[in-house]
Structures
1.
Amino acid sequence: MSLSVEVVATPELGDRSYVVHDGSSAVVVDPQRDVDRIDSVLEARSVECAVVVETHVHNDYVTGGLVLARRTGADYIVAGAEAAAFPCGALADGTDLDVGDMVLTAVATPGHTDGHMAYVVTSGDAPAAVFTGGSLLYGSVGRTDLVDPRRAEELARAQFRSARRLAATLPQDSLLFPTHGFGSFCSARPDSGVDSGTLGDELRVNDVFADDDEATFSSRLVAGFVPYPRYYVHMGPLNLSGPGPADLGPPHLVDARGLRGHLDAGDWVVDLRDRDSFAAGHVAGTVNVPLDGQFATRLGSVMPWGAPLVLVAASLEEVAAAQRQLARIGIDRPAAAAVGAPDVLAPDGRRRSYPCASFDQLASARRAGEAMVVLDVREGYERAAGAIQGSVHMPWTEVASMTRQAGQGRLWVHCAAGARAGVAASVLARDGHDVVLVDDDFRHAVASGLAST
């Protein structure tokens, strides 16, 4: 008997899905919305999808589990105690399920969510494969404030007990396969940099095993939580409602005139270029969210949920890549897309630009007496560790609510390294503010004496 685990990584969201199989039958664990990637693995390994399992109802992405199960005829198992609005199965704690030559065992691991389950898959003498979802991660555990922030410490205590239960009941050579922990905000701690390991490895390095005091661990865990993306509040309800398939077909293409119509209608028109190129010249009224590994997370955090969306890109391939990322968080079917450079898409001259600067240039402008407002768009916990004297604070996701004030001078917008400030500066420029993007590392502000720590 054999047991193989195929990893389907989604680094853009910091998650992994898994296909575990015996050479004939497969169990798919926590599939993302774009299940064509799962299909490719099943086809390449010539295995049949027999069971799809969810460790929990996800708060950071839309699942593809229901679609995959319906299309393949596989059983669909959703973690217990979750109120799904569609027919599905559930496995009680300790229940075994035979899948080909494998045995899948459900283990209740509440904490990340109330009904969270881990799944242990065994086959013959091979080491057990433990799919821990958002409970026990590499070097950390899942955060416990996504279900209800008021219950964060209560669920952290449950998380502590769940991790200890896994350690007490499973062999130390059990292979660990978490869903979160690769940069996902569902993790209680930043990416550990580890991408494989055993339960024994975690016993030596994971904080949840470092202290036997449940209360101390829980308080410390909750105190370390950082803000999570705003779109998370929509993911649980979407997953419980039974999401349909992702529509990755090409959106309606518009020319310069059509693009101007969307801008005049107040749609969110998003330019996918890098922030320096956007600052140097863009179609008036557009905002900038670069197409990189954080694209969907950033757009989902700053754009009003449900707003009509138009993508502006250099190629159809970029539009397709953006659509795939967006479908994973439930943003389906852009209203339109436009392909081309700013001079092509705004031949009437309605183009704008704004300068980029360093912290040294900010310091020089300040010494010269330039009228300015230094706008810090980092999160509150970052600002608490050090800030530029006299700066104004507003998190980057909230700058659309900032009103213009007569005589305020230019807004010099900064974050920790330039990426979030780039998005914020573009939103502010769209709304008529005179901005300078400080595209620089905040450590240079500290080194120059601009910032206190």
2.
Amino acid sequence: MSTPALVATLIGAIALIIVLIIKFKLHASLALIIAAFVTALVARVPLGEITDVLEDGVGGTLGFLTLIIGFGAILGKLLEVSGGAERLASTMLNALGTKRATLAMSILGFITGIPVFVEVGFVLLVPLVFVVAKEAGISRIKVGIPLAVSLMIVHCILPPHPAATAIAGTLGADIGTVIIAGILVGLPAALIAGPLYAHFAIKDDVVGEAAPAEEAVEAKAETTDRELPGFGITLLTVLMPLLLMVTRTIALEFVSEESLAGRIISLVGSPITALLLSVLFAYFSLGFSRGMNRDEVLKLTESSFAPIAGILLIIGAGGAFNAVLTASGIAPALATALSGLAISPVILAWLIALVLHFAVGSATVAMISAAGIVLPMLALNPDIAPATMAIAIGAGAIGLTHVTDSLFWMVKEYLHMSVPQALKTLTVATTIASVVGLGGAMVVNLVL
């Protein structure tokens, strides 16, 4: 097929995914697999090879991620059940004061969001939003939006989050480098799109209607007087996987990877080992030391796996779709065509992810799909580091969080905003974070 025909096939496939998800309400994993089959047939992939391509795509993607996602889910559940999130919040609020409530919530979201999914993190911390807003005498929207934005940023650009880890693997980027770049890019984006934006754009009297469940949620937050884990041990538990992976990246700059020390460092700092060690540490720091017995820890572990089933299916189906794009020649043809444009591949990667997120409503789907589309660009642009493209894609998937995204409705309902209020606050804030993230990716591109 000619390049225009292949590009048209890709556009049709993306449109099909959008229609299946939005119009027919199919789960994203089903939409991706159906689109993969249709794309393979239209692009004339041999019939006998289609299922092999799909299986290779699913296996190649999930083979790296399944354990990482599972271990991360355990960490998040332990943080929730132990009261670790409450400890982080109370300590930072006491240190910064209620006058800096928006800053405290933004930082809290950035830290707490590391081991938990964005929706889980928001539900976990939203009770604090009502209490803090009441104590500070400001709008709950002004407090809640910085929290949601930080959680979304970490969800999209910082491993070991599933999508961020997946695209790093797809692009061949070093996980430690992505983490370092993600923190350096994500933190300023969170502060600018969160507290700074809220300070100038959200008035204290913009509170919306009274939330029916607010009193119950607030009462729950105010009456929680159980002993909480220490701040230091909780912070260490949350950050341990990042510290191990970043240490690996830095240490291998000074130690040969072929030496015994280098091999040990590589093993301990690999994502799977780092997450496993962090889970084992968390069992003691947030589990056994909190009075849990082995049966309770086992029950908690088992309960943490159910919520990640959908994520695993989406990522696996996204890997299958990407494999079809490569096998059919669509991705290489698109990369060749786009590379001829007078625009940076970094901006293109960001723009593709942004448009896909706007259309599909799932940051995970947008990132996985965008990575498959832009992967061939790396071969044509060897001066661009894979980590840069990973950050650019993640930044693009942050923006334009609107009615197609489940997070939009969750934030709207919990903060009891109208749709126009949510569009003016959450959608605008995430888009600002996305643009700042793009700027950060461009800076990273100059350094790496």
3.
Amino acid sequence: MNAGTLRGPALIANGQGRFALETVEVEPPHFGEVRVAMAAAGVCHTDHASMRWAGPLVMGHEGAGYIEQIGDGVEGLTVGQPVLLNWAIPCGHCFQCDLGAEALCERTHELDVAHLGTSRAHTGATRLRGEPVQRAFHLGTFAHHTVVRAEAITPLPHDMPLDLACILGCAVMTGVGSAVNVAAVLPGDSVAVIGCGGVGLNVVQGARIAGASTIVAIDRVRSRLTRARAMGATHTLLAESDDPRAERLIAAVRDIVSRGVDHAFEATGVADLAFLPLHMARHGGNALQVSGAHGPATLELPRLFWNKRYIAPLYGGCVPARDFPRLFDWIAQGRIDLANQVTHRYRLDELERAFADMHDGRAGKVVLRIA
């Protein structure tokens, strides 16, 4: 091993639907890089899907930890500083970054191959049995250490617990940002949110912060609807299995807002539901698919009538320098609730149980405590 290389556990997906806790070597950071000692990582459905991406792969894309070592050329950061990791990493000078669309950074997405990276900081910095191993979303947060580009790091307030802060880097930013940045919900607007898991609950919170007067939360699990009500939903609707075309659900939304809502969000991750927001949005309204659902779905073109806008936003339109400080302020003001989102915490070696509780609806937001 090179001087300064660290050994530690990491959860490695094999690309065939399985994972294992392995020991990896993490090298020191090179120019423009930072090595982070991970403290906590959020778990979501994307992490479960990553078990079938090209492997071997260090899993995990939500995370917070402490700066362990800083490479040359990095300014404004200090060893020991608590930090949040951001998977949509802006370079700051490509076409998209110049437009202010930093979540669409061309440098990051040109490196992206099936959600993986190909630069040294994305592969060669971490090795499994001496061979470079890829890391989910250029991060690989289900590990004791990771090396990332400095642009992936946002310093955290020193008083923010890292087992709560870790979910800011995906679930919270995606949900709140989709409501505030992308849909641009206005005071008095009406909103429907289909799916009240990690992202959906934060769409609810974002809509409340933006001043929506009607927020209809929809889910098949009653406990999620209870959490949605606590976070700002004005109405809740239970999705039932004997309503496969969601006809009763659509009618129920229309009973609340007869013309249809101003903004309807899908946050289930189920491809068959990707176009359901179009049935609930009014003419001229917004329908947003914020879950990143994959797979085929059928759309009847008249559902786009009239003047409806269908949007599949990435990461809530995140601009890190603008959005993360704003999220920190809203948390300090009590306008964003993190504590009641994170319902279950697990050790790194308990990921199988974490996935099971997440899929069964027993858990809200799930977090791995890494150190």
